[in-house]
User: What shape does this take?
Amino acid sequence: MAKKHDQEYGQQLFSSLQEIAAGSRQHPATPPAPAPHPVALFPPPPRELRKMKKFRFQLLHRWLVERFEPCRAADIGGGKGLLAYMLQESGWETAVIDPTPQALPHKYKNITTGQRIKTPAGAAVRHIDLEFSSTMADEFDLLIGMHAHGCNALIIDAAARLGCGFILFPCCVIDEPFYPPIGTTWLESVADYAVRQGHHIYPFRLNFKGQNIGLAATGRCRLSPSHQILK
Ligand SMILES: C[S@@+](CC[C@H](N)C(=O)[O-])C[C@H]1O[C@@H](n2cnc3c(N)ncnc32)[C@H](O)[C@@H]1O
Assistant: This one.
């Protein structure tokens, strides 16, 4: 049986997140420019076989580079730094913010070509070996928290204060400053918190097994030209 945090959530929860997100477009706390419709902004990807959870970095990398212009991105709780490394290879300026220093994986799979890629000797990403605090966000446009332990509310707060975008895959509530009310999932609670901080959020799914629902806010990040057209 899948561990609790590895379980895939269903369409009902996704629909609930879309409803919370729609509220963020009707009652923004800080009214910015009109937000594009979420389905137009982040259409579901073309169908392909569901991938194993270990490919979540490749899937998120592809999702990001297809939608955003390269920007300054922090992968908070970024672990081994594979996502930051792949974004860097795509021309993004990246850093991992994680108190536990970990080496890049020696190899990884390109999910588009199927090729195994060896990480070149000497390859590196910038690593800030500290717990995330909102002052660190000053130098970034996009704050990424893929299962970032205890950092979801901090990321939302920092992004609201500084106008950054964020990508969150909330995993567990441990070490967060609030708990979901009874009858509410952690994901709904995070989405609701983000809306109350004035963010326009977009729920989306990546095609891997496990907790694959993300919450996106574009903030000051620029969408790539093909996604501008969808506006
Ligand atoms: C569940 S792992 C996720 C790692 C990676 N993002 C992934 O998806 O595999 C959580 C990571 O958060 C890091 N972490 C824990 N507390 C943190 C904090 N306060 N600030 C930043 N990172 C933190 C841990 O060291 C760990 O690498």
Q: What stands out?
A: Residues 28-33 have pLDDT under 50 and may be disordered. Residues 11-26 form the longest helix (16 residues). The pocket of S-adenosylmethionine is lined by residues 76-79, 97-100, 131-132, 146-151 (CB under 6 Å).
